[in-house]
């Protein structure tokens, strides 16, 4: 029977051993192999081809062990995937999704984040002597690879959560069943931000952004997969499982889309600027109320290497206030409201342009005072402005947020006293210095939905979807899935849709048509 189905006895034995490795009993493993074969029959013999007619099959309904079914589906993916190269992902606490690649001949295995917010591949080098984090991860040894080519050019990459430096090398890279030859990558000899990389479950990062943001103009792995004919279709797609206890943490499909992991059709929106996977996002709603910030459009990028959702501080603060998240009480914010609130109100009512209000009252010396680099992506080092002291910059920022908040309340025709009281309360919800805020887990059911508008369609996140839980039982801590990030015009305001969003919406990155597609994940 196995041979008739096109599966060899050796493959069946391999499947059987795979089930045993999952801690399944021998009897259950036999049943799971049978289930796998049944599923194989269904996918290869029952489902019609595009040119075939439809057949009606009568099926019997029977209770199945859900855990066994999930394991079977994961094993079946390994043997039966036909649309693209499927790479299974591990999920660590809904914060890190990583998979395995090989570098060299024979391949040396590394766990990597498949990161759409950067474009380089790097792994720790055997020459990384002085960074403690390198001793907690696998290290590439060029002397053990017969296909290694020395380059040696030094380089550095800065991320929002840390930095690495090292030198370029060249070798073969194995991604699933695809071998990319002569791939230029970085051997990291220094990893900054001690806890960030030391505690990470991944060894390195494989960037899936465009070559325009590649350090050293190195050709990204994805480009070479296409150029060398490793995949047939010029798309890749992500499914991220938001159940950290699940055996199968997610998957990335190179060269295709897995129909098992989304519902309905994808909504596509064009890329507006190559570099990041960037597009124009529409209005942003808290509950059913517009924040007003993105009515005219905001730039947004989809970043599989960012755990949370990042947005302008002013809007994230409004979200935190609406969901009851607690950050650091900002004395500067309250000072601006108490001393300048009336004046800001009068200037806005009289028709003064919002972006000039803080300049007119003397709290900002010029328009672009908030220099922030894009989170967790390659950052160009820029000289910070020297005209303002740190304290002045904080007051300027507080003023700019106050203007946004008052302007939004004016649109809702609230009274001045009520607006200033509301704005004063918002000061309490400013995110902590690291941008994150804690939530009372017991309040999740009463929190509002958050809605992004993409391609004129609403993409809603419920509280259960945008709140990140860490720990178990009484030790559980709930954290807002929104973190603060301020990018000045003309690049900003900028939103970064990270794993919190991608876990809810299956995402297709269409390189050929330069567009991104979103559909409800399944």
Automatic annotation (TrEMBL):
Keywords: Aspartyl protease, Disulfide bond, Glycoprotein, Hydrolase, Protease, Zymogen
Stretches assigned to the Peptidase A1 domain: 97-519
PROSITE patterns per the UniProt record, alphabetical: ASP_PROTEASE, PEPTIDASE_A1, SAP_B
Pfam families: Asp, SapB_1, SapB_2
Domain Saposin B-type: 328-368, 392-433
The organism's place on the tree of life at top rank: Eukaryota
PANTHER family (alphabetical): BETA-SITE APP-CLEAVING ENZYME, ISOFORM A-RELATED (PTHR47966), OS01G0290000 PROTEIN (PTHR47966:SF28)
Family membership noted in the UniProt record: Belongs to the peptidase A1 family.
Protein name in UniProt: Aspartic proteinase
């Amino acid at each position: 029977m196995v041979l008739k189905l096109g599966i060899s006895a050796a493959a069946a034995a391999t499947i059987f051993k795979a089930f045993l490795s999952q801690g399944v009993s021998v009897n259950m493993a036999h049943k799971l192999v049978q289930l796998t074969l049944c599923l194989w029959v269904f996918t290869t013999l029952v489902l019609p081809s595009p040119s075939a007619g439809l057949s009606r099959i009568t099926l019997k309904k029977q209770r199945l062990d859900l855990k066994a079914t999930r394991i079977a589906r994961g094993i079946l993916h390994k043997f039966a995937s036909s649309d693209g190269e499927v790479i299974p992902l591990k999920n660590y606490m809904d914060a890190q999704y990583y998979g395995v690649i090989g570098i060299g001949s024979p391949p040396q295995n590394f766990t990597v984040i498949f990161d759409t917010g950067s474009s380089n591949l790097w792994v720790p080098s055997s020459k990384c002597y002085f960074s403690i984090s390198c001793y907690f991860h696998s290290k590439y040894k060029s002397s053990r690879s017969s296909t290694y080519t020395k380059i040696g050019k030094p380089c550095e990459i800065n991320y929002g959560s840390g930095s690495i430096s090292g030198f370029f090398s060249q070798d073969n890279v194995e991604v699933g069943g695809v071998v990319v030859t002569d791939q230029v990558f970085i051997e990291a000899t220094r990893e900054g931000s001690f806890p960030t990389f030391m505690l990470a479950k991944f060894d390195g990062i494989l960037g899936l952004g465009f070559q325009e943001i590649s350090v050293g103009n190195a050709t990204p792995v994805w480009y070479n997969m296409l150029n060398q004919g490793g995949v047939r279709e010029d798309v890749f797609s992500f499914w991220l499982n938001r159940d950290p206890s699940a055996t199968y943490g997610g998957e990335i499909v190179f060269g295709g889309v897995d129909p098992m992991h989304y519902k309905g059709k994808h909504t596509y929106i064009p890329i507006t600027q190559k570099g990041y996977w960037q597009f124009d996002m529409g209005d942003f709603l808290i509950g059913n109320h517009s924040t007003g910030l993105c009515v005219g459009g905001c730039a947004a990028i989809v970043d599989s290497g960012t755990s949370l959702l990042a947005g302008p501080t002013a809007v994230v603060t409004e979200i935190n206030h609406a969901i009851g998240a607690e950050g650091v009480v900002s004395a500067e914010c309250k000072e601006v409201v108490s001393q300048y609130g009336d004046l800001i109100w009068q200037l806005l009512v009289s028709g003064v342009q919002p972006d000039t209000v803080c300049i007119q009252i003397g709290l900002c010396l010029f328009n672009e005072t908030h220099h922030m680099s894009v989170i967790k992506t390659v950052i160009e080092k820029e000289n910070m402005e020297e005209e303002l002291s740190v304290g002045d910059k904080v007051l300027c920022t507080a003023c700019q947020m106050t203007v946004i908040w008052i302007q939004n309340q004016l649109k809702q025709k609230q009274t001045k006293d009520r607006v200033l009281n509301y704005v004063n309360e918002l000061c309490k919800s400013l995110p902590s210095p690291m941008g994150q805020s804690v939530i009372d887990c017991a309040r999740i059911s009463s929190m509002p939905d958050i809605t992004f508008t993409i391609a004129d369609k609403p993409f809603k996140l419920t509280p259960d979807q945008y709140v990140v839980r860490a720990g178990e039982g009484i030790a559980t801590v709930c954290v807002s899935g929104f973190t603060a990030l301020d990018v000045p015009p003309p690049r900003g305001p900028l939103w970064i849709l990270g794993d919190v969003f991608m876990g809810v919406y299956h995402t297709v990155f269409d390189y050929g048509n330069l567009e991104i597609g979103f559909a409800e994940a399944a």
